[in-house]
Amino acid sequence: MLAVAGLLAVPLLGGCTGDAQQEAEQEKERTSARTPVPTSGSGAPRLVVGEAPVRARVVRVAGDLTAAERTQVKDNIGRVVGDWFDAAYLGGELRDGADLAAAFEVFTPAAAQQAARQADVTTGRVLAAELDQVVPTTQRVEAAVFASGRGPAGATAKVTLVLVGARNQGEQVEQVVRGELFLTVTTDGWRVFGFDLSRSVGEVGSFARAEKRAEGGS
Amino acid sequence: MRRLRRWVTLSISLAVLAVVVPDSGRQQFRASLVAVEGASGLDTGDGVVWILALGSDARPGEPVLRSRADAIQLVGVNARTGDSTVIGIPRDSYVDIPGHGRDKINASLVYGGPELAARAVAGLVGIEPDYVFTTSFVGFQRMVFVLGGVNVYSPDSYVEPLASIRRGFNDLNGVESLVFVRERYALPDGDFDRSRNQGRFLTDGLRALRQRADEPGALERLVYSFTQHTDIDVGPVELYRLARAVLAVDPRRTSRCVLDGSIGMAGSESVVFPDRQQARSLGRRAGRDAKLEGGCG
Question: Which of residues 237-276 of B touch A (CB under 8 A)?
């Protein structure tokens, strides 16, 4: 049985609220989280890479939300997206041919069906069978929220998941999932009713280099 | 199909109408990027939504929902496939209005508001709208402003006091857009051409909406703006999901038709006798998937 080290802990830590102190604390958390730490797999080569928590932010609000509501929205959307990251890419269950439905519990039923049909992108199953260890190095959620007089109603969450995986021969790969999730408030809380995602695979560090280039070019 | 009728007095429903490489799993990871795959989906309920977009000609002080409709466009949206169909109905079309005998279809809004207008259109085309959006002059202009203007194609050129429209594409602000969708005297085929222009505006407005929606939070701002400028009978969650469905439409996959008809007299009034066979044909062919194959005939 394969061990999946990186999934040992995927702490869900809210995110930025625009408050300077919180930003500073989160930056501290982020920096701390990226300090290289070894993760272990049963007998497999150890993957030494920093594990990043989910960082959620509300970047735009159209409508009226109190500071408390905004924080709540950030936490809730962060939790929903983090649950999907965890179930679909980090949890390791997919390698055993588990029911795909488990990966999409935070999706509406119709969206879950559509996502399951495109599971090569919406889950990590393509690589799951080959990897001994998986560690998320970036878990980012940036939400634009629509709120009516009755509270938050819908949101577009720009998501980025970068994970490093190790094969038992020691070869490392980087998998990047990016795109948008569309969410609305339901009786069960925030749920994903649509998605527009891409998944790419490359050598470790590709994502960071691409981001750096993008920042330099902007 | 879901038949959940809602109406919205909407400032501009018109505007809303708005590398895969092989499995990389066993590749050697030598390149900086060896695979990119995409996936997309949208939960849109039953899939196809029909929206009746009405442009009320209410003057200041007149009730928007009880005035005649200058623009009558039936829009089908299939978010799953990206297809859409826009059926323009000349406002003077002489039809059965339930409970009111025969009259111009634009009078249905006066007699019974958006619900009766929807029933009159359903009686003609055979498609019962899921939603009815009614726009006012002012609301229409405001929403075009929120969109940042609309680049619209006009097959005709003409000059009006508030707008000069040239043949080809025009960058129009709210006032100019209103002129564009209302003008009929300067057009060779009068009310029919006006209805065609309204359909063009819907498609080009959707294109503008899609461009704006690439900006973070743009869709959320637009939906919020709707709620601020409209008398609305749709919950915010439903409205947000509807906006996402409309945004999923590919303007290149839009079919537009204007219902044909012959001009004649009904009593002392000049009316259009609509081509009922064509109306039913359009409804039958586009009703299920909002895809109109075989043209407008």
Answer: 237, 239-241, 244
Confidence category of residue A102, pLDDT binned at 50, 70, 90? confident
Question: Total structural domains in chain A?
Answer: 1
User: What domain range includes position A125?
Assistant: 47-217
Is there a domain that residue A81 lies in?
A: yes
Model pLDDT, residue A166: 86
- End-to-end CA distance of chain B, in Å? 24
- Chain B residues whose beta carbon lies within 8 Å of the beta carbon of residue A203: 29-32
Report if residue A64 sits inside a domain: yes
Instruction: Look at residue B96 and tell me if it is in a domain.
Output: yes
Domain residues for the domain of B76 are: 6-23+34-286
> What SS3 class is residue B123?
helix
Whether the per-residue pLDDT at B34 is higher than 60: the answer is no
Q: Is A213 on the interface with B (CB under 8 A)?
A: no
Chain A 92-111, residues with CB within 8 Å of chain B CB atoms: 107-111
Name residues whose C-beta falls within 8 Å of residue B180's C-beta, 6 or more positions apart in sequence.
Answer: B152, B154, B163, B165, B170, B172, B197, B201
List the single residue in B with minimal CA-CA distance to A176.
B36
The count of domains in chain B is: 1
Residues of B in contact with A162 (CB under 8 A): none
CB pairs under 8 A between A and B: 151
**B59 lies within 8 A of chain A by CB:** no
The residue among B36, B42, B43 with the most chain A CBs within 10 A of its CB, best to mutate, is B43
Q: What is the CATH number of the domain that holds A102?
A: 3.10.450.50
- Residues ≥6 apart with Cβ < 8 Å to B109: B54, B56, B65, B66, B67, B68, B69, B116, B117, B134
Helix, strand, coil percentages (3-state) for chain B, rounded to 5, are 35, 30, 35
> Does A33 fall in a domain?
no
Q: What are the backbone angles phi and psi of residue A164, rounded to the nearest 5°? A: -105, 130
- Smallest CA–CA separation between B163 and chain A, in Å? 32
Closest CA to B10 of B92, B147, B131: B131
* Cβ–Cβ gap A144/B26 under 8 Å: no
Does the residue B295 lie in any domain? no
Is residue A36 predicted with pLDDT exceeding 70? no
Q: Is residue A111 part of a domain?
A: yes
Give me the CATH number covering residue B273: 3.40.630.190
In a domain, B297, yes or no: no
Across the interface, do B42 and A153 touch by the CB < 8 Å criterion? no
Residues 6+ apart with CB under 8 A from A76: A189, A190
pLDDT in tens, B128-175: 999 998 888 988 898 898 889 999 999 999 999 999 999 999 999 999
Q: What is the mean pLDDT of chain A?
A: 79
- Is B77 a member of any domain? yes
ipTM tops the 0.90 cut = no
For residue B226 the two structure tokens come to: 């709707």
